[in-house]
Fold this sequence. Notes:
Helices cover 71% and strands 0% of the residues.
Amino acid sequence: MFRGKNLLADQLHLTPLSGTILIVVAVLAGTRYRSVWKSEGPRWQLWLFGLIAAGCLLTLGFLPLKTG
């Protein structure tokens, strides 16, 4: 069994700037999703903005934030 450091886990992390950018993108995509949904707009736009918001939030939820 491999007992060394997990190199992939060391490379996959968010900086404070990238975390902030992901939050802003998720909020903007969520707001756009809600406006398209309320106006009963095209389904492809719902999918697009919903997947962008979900991808950002899942990334924020599962990748660690590294400050230093």
